[in-house]
Amino acid sequence: MLDLPAFLHLWRSEAPSRLQQELDRARLSQLVSHLPLLYVILCLNVVTIAFMFASAAPPALTFAAPSLLLFAGVTRAFFWVSRRNKTICPEKASAMLHSVHFFAVGFAFAYMVWTLALFRYSDTGLRTQLVYTVVITNIVCSFTLAHLRRIALLISFMSMPVFLFMLGYLGGADAKVIALNLMMVAVFLAYMVTVSARDFEKLVDAQLRSVELADENRLLANTDSLTGLPNRREFFARLEKAIDAEGEGGGLFVGVIDLDGFKPVNDLYGHAIGDRVLKEFAARLELFAGDATTIARLGGDEFGIFVRGGCDDPDIMNLGVQICAAMKAPLKFADVYAGLSASVGFARYPHDAMDAHRLYERADYALYFGKQHQRGEAVLFSSDHESKMLFNARIELALRNADLEKEMTVEFQPLMDVKTQQIVAFEALARWNSPEIGSVPPDLFIPVAESGDLIHLVTRTVLRKALAAAREWPEDIGLSFNLSTRDLMSSYAMTQIIALIESSGVRPGRLEIEITETTLVADFDHASRAIRRFKKMGVNIALDDFGAGYSSLSYVHRLPVDRIKIDRSFVQEMHASPIARDIIKSVIGLCDNLKLDCATEGVETVEQYDLLRKYGCDVVQGFLFGRPVSPEEIPDLLTGNAVAQDEARRA
Ligand code: C2E
Ligand code: CA
Ligand code: CA
After folding, report:
1. Structural domain tally of the chain?
2. What confidence category does residue 372 fall into, taking pLDDT thresholds of 50, 70 and 90?
């Protein structure tokens, strides 16, 4: 049935611009493939009619006029053939479609005037043939131009009076029937053209929607939902493309940006505030993005940056300084005031590495180095970093192949009670003597073991040996043991550690687990759960290296900590720096208030010890009282303890 409202709507409606563009593009591609053929048919048609009327009509109508029509038809056919396989911009597509209106209507008009003029010169038989030829031509044109419904309908309507005139001219009952018939055909044709044009628009619309949906999905998959920045996947995809475009030329820098102190803010104020903080920092970073600079969120509080455009080392360090300065500006929300900072590590392409992954690895190493030595600053990957990375790789390989039971040993360093001047415990310190590399200090191999997933094995080996040694000591001598963040984060590793302690024969009350602040910062919830598991079985907890990290007092409040160990850097600076002295004094005061034990490590001189005793420190540890020793040397140290006890009693 004729859908009149839709018909009228389609006739009037203006499609939205993106759809309009897509429609223009689709219509044009149809025209490019159909119009040459249509013009060829029209030309053959013109030649046939010219021949039919050759002897009846004057040369102006059988030669000059058809030649002009043929010229126009052939030119247009070539024009459309030449447009095949060419990309046409939307503006040009629209202009070309307008030209189709002009040419098609012009051609149809000229054709009809010509056939009307010929009509006069023929007999009835020839005229009837002419009417049929023109009608068939009209149907072919309407269907070929169906998706350009305005033109198709216009040509149909234009040709209608011509047919009627021709039929009227022919006269007779037959002509009336044919006229009626033609009218019906014309209406049906108009309807078919309208419907097929509407179906064509619907099809294009559906295609456009599916393209838009795919674009939207792609955008979602490549965007970080919190900050709106490109995500890790998109970052690496763009970086790889940029490296390919760069070739061997160089001048591309990759950076990794990490917030300092974000996790404590997240722990303290909750995830909603944490998200706001991340958004704020992402917005600050986005200001640095531009044609040559891409910024992305790689995950957590880590952001990535890469800069093209041939800048040099000083340029990139300058950018790093600007980024760090922007990130240092304090954050103020309704009830939150946080002063965070960010560290940045950069690596150069192709100087430091040739592919995206290795570049990232090196920038990340520079960042890791910066976080340890130049927190809140930008660091460029150097040859020194490269050799350290290589050495770490060597350590990891040797550690993987190591016979830990044989190569790993434990030394013990005494902890002395300031009041009684007695050794109250020993801290177990891991020692590794690799047959390949030689003796490797724990500061080097523990981080490597942590990153290479070997730490649990190292911990179990060292703990078993330490517990075996402690079993031989008097009941009142404690054992302090360092646990890695990774140990506390893994519930499987925790279960194994607890099983080792339970089966060791050492009373859990003699054991103290040393945990660094970085562990708490990494994942407070996991760490807190692990600490409570230890406390439940009677093991004591010490907060190690206090002051070296974030020193958030909230951790001390929220966790069942028994002892705080002030980081040795403060002790080493205490004579030169009044600030270090003040910090030590206030931490000792804090421990006093919270009824916690306070220990100071790294005590090397009598002057340091005297001051610490004056401030009220409970326990001291350091080379002044004893270096780490093998388990075999401990009985001698403890005999010294007994002698001191005797002397103290006699005095
Ligand atoms: P830490 O827990 O702070 O251990 C104390 C470190 O300070 C030890 O270094 C010790 O030898 C050193 N030290 C003690 N007294 C003094 C002093 O008076 N002056 C100076 N300059 N240093 C002193 P070490 O044995 O090289 O251990 C370094 C770090 O390695 C430890 O720091 C600890 O974080 C880690 N570590 C050692 N053994 C283990 C272990 O079995 N497991 C884990 N997870 N980490 C361990
Ligand atoms: Ca320690
Ligand atoms: Ca320590």
Report:
1. 3
2. confident
